[in-house]
Amino acid sequence: MTRFAAVAFDLDDTLCRHDHDVDALYRRAFERAGVEPFSEPAELWPLLDGPPDPDDRVGYLGAGFARLAAQYGRNVDPVALAEAFEAVADESRVAYLPGALDALAAAAAAGPVGVLTNGPEKRQRAKVEALGLDGRVDAIVYAGDLPRRKPHAAPFERLTAALSVDPAETLYVGNSLGYDVAGAHNAGLRSVWLRGDPDDVAEPYRPDYVVDSLEELAALLTEGCESSGSESVGDESEEREPGSAGSGGAAAGTEGDR
User: Fold this and answer.
1) DSSP string of 79-130, one letter each residue
2) Counting Cβ atoms within 10 Å, is residue 7 exposed (0-12), middle (13-18) or buried (19+)?
3) Is beta strand 94-96 parallel, antiparallel or unpaired with respect to 16-18?
């Protein structure tokens, strides 16, 4: 048994990742924009500023292309490249992260299951359908269609209302400290940080639990939060009992909506 009345998940880079042939996608974007390719895809991602801006994905990508073009001394329209990239991307090309199905099943055994994504339904719906999430969760909230997105409390409040659960008894799982962990804290939910690198540290945030894979999350939900080998990661003076569920590896992406 677990101590949670409900479990909810972020979508991109938490439950799923893009399953594109990135090299082919990159070439198609340059071809669509009428620009001769001048770099490799891996060179673009480090030039992007944090997670995507749900309000301006073209501007977000365009800034990266602008920096890349400057490094290569190319005179191109970075916005046109970003628009082309968005046009050729297939949002239905997604795959579950390892352990995601087991984590969803363990969550369902604990109570209602939800998904909260910062993206709008018009983009995220294709992912939901490709993954068959409608048949696996009880509520999906698309914060991209709300006045406020994560880390604001409003999307989390919409989610717990849809699940008919107390926020304090709800566990939210996500890969972003600034969006998922911070947002859950602001709305009074407990949080699990799915970190992409075992060497990453949560500070200055304080997730209740830290896992390095969804397999660890499934074990945490199945065995309960008092599992042996837990390691504190939060403020031990609070009533909550933050902990870590071990080590391993979790995939992290660059293109999803936090």
Assistant:
1) HHHHHHHHHH--TT-EEEPTTHHHHHHHHHHHS-EEEEESS-HHHHHHHHHH
2) buried
3) antiparallel
**Helix ranges (DSSP H) in the chain:** 22-33, 41-44, 57-72, 78-88, 100-110, 121-131, 153-163, 182-187, 214-223
Quote the distance between the C-alpha of residue 40 and its chain's center: 24
The pTM of the full predicted model, rounded to 2 decimals, is 0.78
Angle, helix 22-33 to helix 78-88, in steps of 10 degrees: 130
> Which one, of 50, 38, 25, 103, lies nearest residue 75 by Cα?
38
What tokens were used for 57? 């994905």
Give the containing element (helix H, strand E) for 162.
helix 153-163
CA atoms of 172 and 156, how far apart (whole Å) = 9
Mean pLDDT per 10-residue run, the chain (258 residues)? Answer: 85 91 90 94 89 80 96 96 92 94 96 96 94 97 95 98 98 96 98 95 96 95 54 37 40 45
Greatest alpha-carbon span in the chain: 60
What pLDDT does 5 receive? 95
Q: Are 256 and 11 in contact (CB under 8 A)?
A: yes
| Contact indicator for 257, 142 with CB cutoff of 8 Å | no
User: Distance between CA atoms of 165 and 4, rounded to whole angstroms?
Assistant: 10
Both tokens of 29, joined, read 């974007």
